[in-house]
TrEMBL record:
The keyword Hydrolase applies. Catalyzes the hydrolysis of N(2)-succinylarginine into N(2)-succinylornithine, ammonia and CO(2). HAMAP family: AstB. It comes from Novosphingobium pentaromativorans US6-1. Homodimer. The keyword Hydrolase applies. GO terms for molecular function: N-succinylarginine dihydrolase activity. Belongs to the succinylarginine dihydrolase family. The active site is at E162, H230, C347 (nucleophile). This is N-succinylarginine dihydrolase. It catalyses: N(2)-succinyl-L-arginine + 2 H2O + 2 H(+) = N(2)-succinyl-L-ornithine + 2 NH4(+) + CO2.
Length: 420
């Protein structure tokens, strides 16, 4: 049976605050702070476990091999000789944000009835631009069943593609044909627009989506300038519900009208700027919550603690739940370590609508497997990581060994062979 499976990125042992993401205010603000990779990974695993206990299907992707020496070799250098910025780029744990791994079009939306996944090229940010090789390798293993899945390599540079973070699907139910909304940026004040229209259009073509059920929408410049480097920082969709900030899109009325025409049962829950400012929405990650349908058929938001700590945001949420809105439950999680680099609950997961039985079981979470991963993380992930530590050869070896141990634990040694 087709269900939504959330694949969370397991946070890698090299999680650190090098401040690499221009336009991501949290990353800039926390640059130079001491990170806690072990706590970061355990926070993510606790969220996965809780979602599993809520009756949701849960999968995961492995952290990538860091440092990425293959990438440095392509640049004619290695960890010993590289400059500090290049070294930090080679060490980033940013593949944890699985919403940027790929764009996913489930079978009911595509011409051949298979679920299509296009790996994101992430070309705008150097530290993310080398993720795609291993992401492709993991997706080719997890979704190797060609009767059900088609995995595409990234669209070529220079067309920036940041994956599902700029893609929303609206539908009457996950297993029904959906409207796929591709959100791109053109300008963002002082910040780069990371998702290019040409890349979005290419993904829609590659996935053979019906043009009448495909929408291209321009992100508002104000949102990018305020720190919404991905659209999932200001809007999220689930089944018939679009939950969005008033200032997310350049032409909100035009978009809403188009969506209402394509999916009459759509429910648009818009938070006005007068209730929650863009600044509060972005620092609290109100919209980077996971909007999920529980087995009871009610919708819930899986939120970061920062949402509860932001008075305007929490007030709006409490009023919505007390009223007659479609969101019936609020679940709050401590994801402080990921949040400090600009990654909330929704950034950490890639949604795939598929029959879990068609996915390689090594990527599917069970309570026992999560316990085994937690034990390994508690043993092998550094407790603390400062930016100065990134220069330590002993650390590089420790990081490679820790990740190799996880590959072995999960029976995915093939991911540890060769450089990606
Ligand atoms: O690409 N942060 C990520 C956060 C990604 C969040 N994802 C979604 N919104 N879906 C980014 O900016 C920080 C890395 C650093 O500074 O070390 C970073 O890459």
């Amino acid at each position: 049976m087709l269900t939504e499976i959330n694949f969370d990125g397991i946070v890698g042992p090299s999680h650190n605050y090098a401040g690499l993401s221009l336009g991501n205010l949290a990353s800039a603000k926390n640059a130079g702070k001491v990170a806690r990779p072990r706590a970061a990974a355990l926070q993510g695993l606790a969220k996965m476990r809780a979602n599993l206990e809520r009756g949701l299907a849960q999968g995961f992707f492995l952290p990538q091999r860091r440092p990425d020496e293959g990438w440095l070799r392509q640049l004619g250098t290695d960890m010993a000789a590289a400059s500090a910025p290049l070294r930090a780029n080679a060490l980033s744990a940013s593949s944890m944000w699985a919403a940027n791994a790929a764009t996913v079009s489930p079978g009911p939306d595509t011409a051949d009835g298979r679920c299509h996944l296009t790996v994101a090229n992430l070309v705008t940010m150097p530290h993310r631009s080398h993720e795609w090789r291993e992401t492709l390798a993991q997706l080719q293993i997890a979704f190797a069943n060609e009767a059900h899945f088609a995995v595409h390599p990234p669209v070529p540079a220079p067309f920036g593609d940041e994956g599902a973070a700029n893609h929303m699907r609206l539908c009457a139910g996950h297993d029904r044909p959906g409207i796929e909304v591709f959100v791109y940026g053109e300008s963002g004040g002082p910040f780069p627009a990371r998702q290019h229209r040409e890349a979005s259009a290419a993904v829609a073509r590659l996935h053979a989506l019906a043009p009448e059920r495909t929408v291209l929408a321009l992100q508002s410049e104000a949102a990018i300038a305020a720190g919404a480097f991905h659209n999932d920082v200001v809007a999220v969709a689930n089944e018939r519900v679009l939950f969005t900030h008033e200032q997310a899109f350049a032409d909100r009325e035009g978009l809403y009208t188009e969506l209402r025409g394509k999916l009459p049962e759509i429910e648009i829950v818009e938070v006005p700027a007068s209730a929650v400012s863009l600044a509060d929405a972005i620092s609290s990650y109100l919209f980077n919550a996971q909007l999920v349908t529980l087995p009871s058929d009610e919708m819930a938001l899986v939120l970061p603690g920062e949402a509860r700590e932001t008075p305007a945001v929490w007030q709006w949420l409490e009023a919505h739940v007390a009223g007659n809105g479609p969101i019936r439950h609020l679940f709050v999680h401590d994801l402080r370590e990921s949040m400090a680099n600009g990654g909330g609950p929704a950034c950490l997961r890639l949604r795939v609508v598929a029959d879990p039985a068609t996915v390689d079981p090594r990527f599917i979470a069970t309570p026992e497997k999560l316990s085994a991963i937690e034990a390994l993380v508690a043993r092998l992930w550094p407790e603390q990581l400062a930016v100065e530590d990134l220069a330590s050869p002993a650390l590089w070896h420790e990081l490679v060994a820790a990740r190799a141990a996880l590959c072995r634990e999960l029976g995915l040694e093939e991911l540890d062979r060769g450089a990606f």
